[in-house]
UniProtKB/TrEMBL annotation, chain A:
<keyword id="KW-0812">Transmembrane</keyword>
<dbReference type="GO" id="GO:0042773">
    <property type="term" value="P:ATP synthesis coupled electron transport"/>
</dbReference>
<dbReference type="Pfam" id="PF00361">
    <property type="entry name" value="Proton_antipo_M"/>
</dbReference>
<feature type="domain" description="NADH:quinone oxidoreductase/Mrp antiporter transmembrane">
    <location>
        <begin position="134"/>
        <end position="416"/>
    </location>
</feature>
<keyword id="KW-0472">Membrane</keyword>
<feature type="transmembrane region" description="Helical">
    <location>
        <begin position="85"/>
        <end position="105"/>
    </location>
</feature>
<feature type="transmembrane region" description="Helical">
    <location>
        <begin position="406"/>
        <end position="429"/>
    </location>
</feature>
<feature type="transmembrane region" description="Helical">
    <location>
        <begin position="275"/>
        <end position="296"/>
    </location>
</feature>
<dbReference type="GO" id="GO:0048039">
    <property type="term" value="F:ubiquinone binding"/>
</dbReference>
From TrEMBL, chain B:
<feature type="transmembrane region" description="Helical">
    <location>
        <begin position="286"/>
        <end position="307"/>
    </location>
</feature>
<feature type="domain" description="NADH:quinone oxidoreductase/Mrp antiporter transmembrane">
    <location>
        <begin position="135"/>
        <end position="416"/>
    </location>
</feature>
<keyword id="KW-1133">Transmembrane helix</keyword>
<feature type="transmembrane region" description="Helical">
    <location>
        <begin position="342"/>
        <end position="361"/>
    </location>
</feature>
<feature type="transmembrane region" description="Helical">
    <location>
        <begin position="419"/>
        <end position="439"/>
    </location>
</feature>
<dbReference type="GO" id="GO:0003954">
    <property type="term" value="F:NADH dehydrogenase activity"/>
</dbReference>
<dbReference type="InterPro" id="IPR001516">
    <property type="entry name" value="Proton_antipo_N"/>
</dbReference>
<dbReference type="GO" id="GO:0008137">
    <property type="term" value="F:NADH dehydrogenase (ubiquinone) activity"/>
</dbReference>
<feature type="transmembrane region" description="Helical">
    <location>
        <begin position="118"/>
        <end position="135"/>
    </location>
</feature>
C-alpha cells in the first residue's frame, strides 16, 4: 500500500480544481474554463484508479485509511477510508464527472466557469461522502453537496427552476436534520465518538433502535428517493440542465442507498430486521406503482426520472432481504443505474439541445435523421428495461433471485418490472424514434457529433462490459458484503 | 486438428463477428461485403457444427464453463457450453436454416436501403440462438432467450416507418416479456432451492426438489418450477394465451419470418422443455398443463388459418398450430418426438415461408392470396417446392412431416396422463384442419384463375417502379403484367430446403425416436408411456409409412385436401355461402377469438388508466397536493397568522405581557 493520501486526492483534486476553474471568471475565458475543467475531471478520475487496482479484496476492513484530528474538543476527526461497498462509487463518481464536463461543453454558454466549477466541487464533495468514516465529516459533506446541486438547478435550470430547486433543497434538508439528531445521540451513547465503525459495535435497546432506524429511513429515503417521498425528483430532473440530471441520477441518488448500508443496517440491525417489511413494501410500491406512473408520462425526462425511482426500488429491496445475492445485486444495480440513467438523460439532452422540447409528442421518426443516435438510444433503452448482456440486467437478475429465495411473492412482484420497464422504455422509444418523420423539426435534425458520439460511446462500452462480465465489479464487494451481512445477523440487544 | 473447445467457441462467435462487421462497418464494406462476411460467418458455424456432430456421434460430449460471469451468494454463474446430441441437432438446424435464409436474403432484400443492417441482425440472431441452445446453465439460457427476443423485436420493426410494424414489434417484445417473467421466476426458484443454475447440478438434485414444498405458498416445488419455466416457453413458442404476438410478427420481412418466427426462435420453448425433461418428468400436474395448452393451441390456431387471406398469415397460424403439436408431444413425455417434429418443421416451414416470400416478390409485394391464382405456370420452382412443403406439413406418408406428426399422434393415443383424451381429439381434428387450410392456400395461389394484373385488383400497380420497394406492402402487378420466377439466390434455398423436407423424416426417425441418439439427454420416467409403445410396434420407416396409409390421420388429411380443392377450385360459391350462414362463427375467427381486443382494452388500456390514476391522484393529488404543497401552505398560513401579532403597537405588547404574567402567577399560586 502506498503512502499517498489517495482518498484526500480524490476529494480535494476536484474541489481545488473547481475553485481554479471558478477563478477563470467571466465567459470571455470560457474556452479556458472548459479545458481546465476537463483536465481536472480527468485528473480526478486518474487519482481514483489506484483505489481499484490497489484494493485488497480479501479483507473487509477499511482501506486507504487517513486519520487526523479536526475538532479535538468533540473528538471529531478527518477520518477517511473505503471498503468493498464504497470504493466503486468513488470511481463511478469521478468517471461520470468527465462525462458531465463533456456533455456541458457546447451546450452551456452562460456562466461556463461557474457551471463547470459547481460540478467539479460537487464531485469532490460526493467522494467525501463515500469515504468519510467520521459522522460529522459525513454530515458536512452530505449537506455541502446540496449547495452545488441547488445552484445547478436554480441557475442553469428550466423555467420552473426555482420551485424545483427549493423543493429539492427542503425535501432533503428535512431528512438530514433528523439524521443530525441521530448522529448526536449516537455520539452521546458511544461515550463521545463520532467514528462510524464504533457505532457499528454499539449495543442499543430496541426502542431507540427503532427510532434511529425511522430517522435514517426518512433521511436516506428522501435521497434515494423512496415512495412516498419521491416527488421532488421528477421536478428536479425536469428543471435541471442535462448535466445536473446526470449527476443527480447517477451519483446523488446513490448517497441515500449508501447510507442504508453504512448507517441503518449495521448500527441498528435489530430494527432493520424488525422493520424490513416496511422497507420492502415501500420498495415494491416503488417498483410497481412508479412504473405505471412512468408509463403515462408525456415528458421524456419525467419518464426517465420515474424509471429511476423504480430502479432504485430494486436497490432498497435488495438490501432488506438480507442475503448476498440481494445486497450485491443492489450495489451492482446502483452502479449500472449510474451508467444507464446517465446515458438516458444524455440521450434526452441530445434531443433537447436540437429541438428544445422534451415532449414525446414533439418527436417521431428520429431514426430517419439520426440513425447513430437511434442505435445508442436503443441500447440504453434496452439496458433500462434490463436486457441481458447489458448492465441493467445484472443487478435486477440478482435481486430477483435473492427475493425469490427470501419469499416467492416478493420476487413475483419485483419481477413484474421485467414487463413494466420494457413497456415504458420501449413505448417511449417507439414514439420518439420509430415511425415516419413527424414534423419539420425532426426532418431537419442532424446526427450526433464527435463529442456526443464520444460520451455516448464510452457509456455504451461500460453498459455492455458490465453486462457481459460483471465479475470484476462483484469481486471487489464480496468480502465487505459478507461481513456486513454477518454483522447484521448478530443482535445488538 | 483444431481443439474441440475452440471449435465450440467458433460456432457462435463466427456469426457474431459477421454481425459486428456488417453492423458497425456496413457503410465501409458495402452491400456485397456485408453479405459476404455474414454468409461466411454462418457457413463457418455450419461446418464447425458438422464436425462437432461427427464428434458427438463418436461419443464425445462436453459440459464445461467458458468463463465465470459472476459469483454471488454461493452460486457461480457461468457462461459455458453443453454439447450433446440434442445441442448438436439444434446447432445443425439453426445454422443450416440460417445459411439458407442468408443466401435467400441476398435476393429478397436486394432493393432495400437497410440491406447491411438486415444482414447484421440475422447474423446476430444466429449468434443468440446458438448461445441459447449451447448453454449449460439457466443464466446463459435466459441470456440467449432474451437476446433472440431482442433481435426478433428489431427485425419485426425492421421497416420502422410502418405503424403496423412498430406496433407489432412492441407487442411481440412485451408479450414475450410476460413469458420471460414466468421463466425468470422459475430460474429464481431453481437457484433458491437447488443452490445452482448449472443444468447438471440441478438435474442431480431433481429428486430432492420433487419431494419439497415451497415456503409461504405450500405448493409442490417441482410443479411450480416447471409451470414457471413453461410460462416462458408459452411466450417464446407462442402458446395460447401468449400467442398473440406471432401473427403480427409477419410485419417483418419474410426471410425472418422463416428463420425466426417459424424454424428456430419460436421452437426455443420446445427445446427448453425437452432439455428440462428430468424436471418435467417429476410433475404430472405440469405435464397435464403443458398438454392441454398445447392441444388447445394446435386445434384452435389451426381454425384461424382457414379464414386468413394474407399468404404470410396463413403460414403463421399454421406455425402456431404446429408448435401446439410439439407442445402436445412434450405433455405426453414424447420429448424426442417433439424435438423430431421441431426439426422436420424447421425445414418444411422455412421452405413454406421462403416460398411465400418468393411468391410475394413475383407478385410485386402483393400478399393477398385472393389476388393470386394460376402461378404454377409462371413460377415453376416455387410451385413445386411449395407443393412438397405443403405435403410435408399435412403429414403425407413418406414426407418428413408424416413421421414426426404421426409419432406425436400415436404417443398421445398411448398416453394415460390426464388431458390425453382431449388432446387426442384436438390433434386428430387438427390434421384435417391443417390439410384444409394448407391446400386452400396452395390452390388459391398456384392453381385456378389468374386474379392478378387486372386494373381493379392493383390500385397502386402503376406506381411501383418509382417507389421504394421495401417500404410499402401494398404493391402489386401492373395490369397485364405476369409474375416471373425469382432469381437463383431465392430458388436455390427453396430447393435445398425441399430436400430435407421430403426425406429427413424417413432417414432419421429410427435413430432419433427409437435408437439411442437421445439416451442420457432426454429422460422419461418409468410411469410415463412416452414412445415406448410406439417403439414396440415400429418396424422400419417404410413400414410405418405403409401402415400410415391405412390410419385415420391419413384419411383426415386427404379429406382436408379434397375439401379444399372442391371448395376453392370447383365450387367457390360454397365457402361464401357457409361464411354467410355461420356469420357469428366466422366473425369469431376473423377476430381471432377477440384475444387482441381483450388485451388492448384490459391490459394495455388498463395499465394506462392505472398509471394516469396513480400519477394524477397519488403523486400530484395526495403526495404533492396535500402533503408537500399542503405543508408549505400550512407553514405560510401560520406565518401569516403569527404576523398579525407583530403589530408594532407598544400598548398591545404591554397588554399581552400583563396577561402573560397574570396567567403565570395563577399557575404559581395553584401549584401546590
Amino acid at each position: 500500500m502506498t503512502d499517498i493520501p489517495l482518498l484526500s486526492l480524490a476529494i480535494w483534486v476536484p474541489i481545488i480544481g473547481g475553485l481554479l476553474v471558478l477563478a477563470t471568471g467571466s465567459d470571455r475565458n470560457a474556452p479556458l474554463a472548459r479545458m481546465l475543467a476537463f483536465a481536472v475531471a480527468v485528473a480526478g478520475f486518474v487519482v481514483t484508479l489506484p483505489l481499484y487496482t490497489g484494493f485488497d479484496t480479501t479483507t473487509s476492513a477499511m482501506q486507504f485509511v487517513e486519520v487526523s484530528s479536526w475538532i479535538p474538543r468533540f473528538n471529531i476527526n478527518y477520518h477517511l477510508g473505503v471498503d468493498g461497498i464504497s470504493v466503486l462509487f468513488l470511481l463511478l463518481n469521478a468517471f461520470i464527472t468527465i462525462i458531465v464536463v463533456l456533455a456541458g461543453w457546447k451546450v452551456i454558454e452562460n456562466k461556463v466557469a461557474q457551471y463547470m466549477a459547481a460540478f467539479l466541487i460537487m464531485s469532490g464533495l460526493m467522494n467525501g461522502i463515500f469515504s468519510a468514516l467520521d459522522g460529522v465529516l459525513f454530515y458536512v459533506f452530505f449537506e455541502a453537496s446540496l449547495i452545488p446541486m441547488y445552484l445547478i438547478i436554480g441557475v442553469w435550470g428550466g423555467p420552473n427552476r426555482v420551485y424545483a430547486a427549493i423543493k429539492f433543497f427542503l425535501y432533503t434538508l428535512l431528512g438530514s436534520l433528523l439524521m443530525l439528531i441521530v448522529l448526536l445521540y449516537l455520539f452521546m451513547q458511544s461515550g463521545g465518538s463520532f467514528y462510524i465503525l464504533d457505532w457499528h459495535q454499539l449495543p442499543l435497546p430496541i426502542e431507540p433502535q427503532i427510532l434511529i432506524f425511522l430517522a435514517f429511513l426518512v433521511a436516506f429515503g428522501v435521497k434515494v428517493p423512496m415512495w412516498p417521498v419521491h416527488t421532488w425528483l421528477p421536478d428536479a430532473h425536469v428543471e435541471a440542465p442535462t448535466g445536473g440530471s446526470v449527476v443527480l441520477a447517477a451519483i446523488a441518488l446513490k448517497l441515500g442507498a449508501y447510507g442504508f448500508l453504512r448507517f441503518s443496517m449495521p448500527i441498528v440491525p435489530d430494527a432493520a430486521h424488525e422493520l424490513s417489511w416496511l422497507v420492502i413494501s415501500l420498495s415494491l410500491i416503488a417498483v410497481v406503482y412508479i412504473s405505471f406512473v412512468a408509463l403515462v408520462q408525456v415528458d421524456m425526462k419525467k419518464l426517465v426520472a420515474y424509471s429511476s425511482i423504480s430502479h432504485m426500488g430494486f436497490v432498497t429491496l435488495g438490501f432488506f432481504i438480507f442475503n448476498p445475492l440481494g445486497v450485491e445485486g443492489a450495489i451492482v444495480q446502483m452502479i449500472s443505474h449510474g451508467f444507464v440513467s446517465a446515458a438516458m438523460f444524455l440521450c434526452i439532452g441530445v434531443l433537447y439541445d436540437r429541438v428544445h422540447s422534451r415532449q414525446i409528442a414533439d418527436y417521431g421518426g428520429v431514426v430517419h435523421t439520426m440513425p447513430k443516435f437511434a442505435a445508442f438510444f436503443m441500447l440504453f433503452a434496452m439496458a433500462n428495461s434490463g436486457l441481458p448482456a447489458t448492465s441493467g440486467f445484472v443487478g435486477e437478475f440478482m435481486v430477483v433471485l435473492g427475493a425469490v429465495k427470501y419469499n416467492f411473492w416478493i420476487g413475483f412482484i419485483a419481477a413484474t418490472s421485467l414487463i413494466l420497464s420494457a413497456a415504458y422504455s420501449l413505448w417511449m422509444y417507439k414514439r420518439v424514434v420509430f415511425g415516419k418523420v413527424a414534423n419539420k423539426q425532426v426532418a431537419e435534425l442532424h446526427d450526433i457529433n464527435a463529442r456526443e458520439f464520444a460520451f455516448l460511446g464510452i457509456l455504451a462500452v461500460c453498459v455492455l462490459a458490465m453486462g457481459l462480465y460483471p465479475f470484476p465489479f462483484t469481486e471487489v464487494m464480496h468480502t465487505s458484503v459478507n461481513e456486513l451481512l454477518r454483522h447484521v445477523a448478530v443482535s445488538k440487544l | 486438428m483444431m481443439d474441440m473447445q475452440t471449435l465450440y467457441l467458433l460456432v457462435p462467435l463466427a456469426p457474431l463477428a459477421g454481425a459486428i462487421l456488417a453492423g458497425l462497418f456496413g457503410k465501409t464494406i458495402g452491400r456485397t461485403g456485408s453479405h459476404i462476411v455474414t454468409i461466411l460467418g454462418v457457413a463457418v458455424a455450419l461446418l464447425a457444427s458438422l464436425v462437432i456432430y461427427q464428434d458427438v456421434q463418436a461419443g464425445n460430449t462436453f459440459d464445461g464453463p467458458v468463463y465465470t460471469w459472476l459469483v454471488a451468494g454461493g452460486i457461480s454463474f457461468e457462461v459455458g457450453f453443453l454439447i450433446d446430441s440434442l445441442t448438436v441437432m439444434m446447432m445443425l438446424v439453426v445454422t443450416f436454416v440460417s445459411l439458407m435464409v442468408h443466401i435467400y436474403t441476398v435476393g429478397y432484400m436486394s432493393e432495400d436501403p437497410g440491406y447491411q443492417r438486415f444482414f447484421s441482425y440475422i447474423s446476430l440472431f444466429t449468434f443468440s440462438m446458438l448461445m441459447l441452445v449451447m448453454a449449460n446453465n439457466f443464466m446463459q439460457l435466459f441470456f440467449g432467450w432474451e437476446a433472440v427476443g431482442l433481435v426478433s423485436y428489431l427485425l419485426i420493426g425492421f421497416w420502422y416507418d410502418r405503424p403496423t410494424a412498430i406496433y407489432a414489434n412492441l407487442k411481440a417484445f412485451l408479450v414475450n416479456r410476460v413469458g420471460d417473467f414466468g421463466f425468470l421466476l422459475g430460474i429464481g426458484l431453481i437457484a433458491a432451492y437447488a443452490g445452482s443454475v448449472n443444468y447438471a447440478e440441478v438435474f442431480a438434485k431433481a429428486g430432492e426438489l420433487a419431494t419439497q414444498e415451497m415456503a409461504v405458498t405450500g405448493w409442490s416445488l417441482i410443479t411450480a418450477i416447471c409451470i414457471c419455466l413453461f410460462v416462458g416457453a408459452m411466450g417464446k413458442s407462442a402458446q395460447i394465451p401468449l400467442h398473440v404476438w406471432l401473427p403480427d410478427s409477419m410485419e417483418g420481412p419474410t426471410p425472418i419470418s422463416a428463420l425466426i418466427h417459424a424454424a428456430t426462435m419460436v421452437t426455443a420453448g420446445i427445446f427448453m422443455v425437452a432439455r428440462m425433461s428430468p424436471l418435467f418428468e417429476l410433475s404430472d400436474t405440469a405435464l397435464s398443463f403443458v398438454l392441454v395448452i398445447g392441444a388447445t393451441t394446435a386445434l384452435f390456431m389451426g381454425f384461424l388459418g382457414i379464414v386468413q387471406d394474407d399468404i404470410k398469415r396463413v403460414v403463421a397460424y399454421s406455425t402456431l398450430s404446429q408448435l401446439g403439436y410439439m407442445t402436445v408431444a412434450l405433455g405426453v413425455s414424447a420429448y424426442s418426438a417433439a424435438v423430431f417434429h421441431l426439426m422436420t418443421h424447421a425445414f418444411f416451414k422455412a421452405l413454406l415461408f421462403l416460398a411465400a416470400g418468393s411468391v410475394i416478390i413475383g407478385m410485386h409485394h402483393e400478399q393477398n392470396i385472393r389476388k393470386m391464382g394460376g402461378l404454377w405456370k409462371h413460377m415453376p420452382i416455387t410451385w413445386i417446392t411449395s407443393l412438397l412443403g405443403s405435403l410435408a406439413l399435412i403429414g403425407f406418408p413418406f414426407f418428413s412431416g408424416f413421421y414426426s406428426k404421426d409419432s406425436i399422434i400415436e404417443a398421445v393415443h398411448a398416453s394415460t396422463i390426464p388431458g390425453a383424451g382431449y388432446a387426442l381429439v384436438c390433434v386428430l381434428l387438427g390434421v384435417f384442419v391443417t390439410a384444409f387450410y394448407s391446400f386452400r392456400m396452395y390452390f388459391l395461389v398456384f392453381h385456378g384463375k389468374e386474379n392478378f394484373g387486372s386494373a381493379d385488383s392493383t390500385p397502386h400497380g402503376a406506381a411501383h417502379e418509382e417507389e421504394d420497394h421495401g417500404h410499402d406492402p401494398h404493391h402489386g402487378l401492373a395490369p397485364g403484367e405476369k409474375p416471373h420466377e425469382s432469381p437463383w439466390v431465392v430458388t436455390l434455398p427453396l430447393v435445398l430446403l425441399a430436400i430435407p423436407s421430403v426425406v429427413i423424416g424417413f432417414i432419421t426417425i429410427e435413430p432419433m425416436l427409437f435408437g439411442d441418439w437421445f439416451t442420457g439427454v432426454i429422460f422419461v420416467a418409468d410411469n410415463h408411456v412416452g414412445l415406448k409403445e410406439l417403439a414396440a410396434s415400429f418396424h422400419g420407416a417404410a413400414g410405418m409409412a405403409m401402415h400410415g396409409l391405412q390410419t385415420a390421420p391419413f384419411w383426415l388429411a386427404i379429406s382436408g385436401v379434397v375439401l379444399a380443392w372442391f371448395f376453392y377450385l370447383v365450387r367457390p360459391g360454397i365457402p361464401v355461402a357457409i361464411q354467410r350462414t355461420f356469420k357469428p362463427i366466422h366473425s369469431l375467427l376473423e377476430n381471432k377469438y377477440f384475444f387482441d381486443r381483450f388485451n388492448e382494452i384490459v391490459f394495455s388500456g388498463g395499465a394506462r388508466l392505472l398509471g394516469k390514476g396513480l400519477w394524477k391522484f397519488g403523486d400530484q393529488g395526495l403526495i404533492d397536493g396535500i402533503a408537500v404543497n399542503g405543508t408549505a401552505r400550512l407553514v405560510a398560513w401560520i406565518a401569516q397568522m403569527s404576523r398579525l401579532f407583530q403589530t408594532g403597537h407598544l400598548y398591545q405588547y404591554a397588554f399581552t405581557m400583563i396577561i402573560g404574567v397574570f396567567v403565570l402567577l395563577t399557575f404559581w399560586f395553584n401549584r401546590g
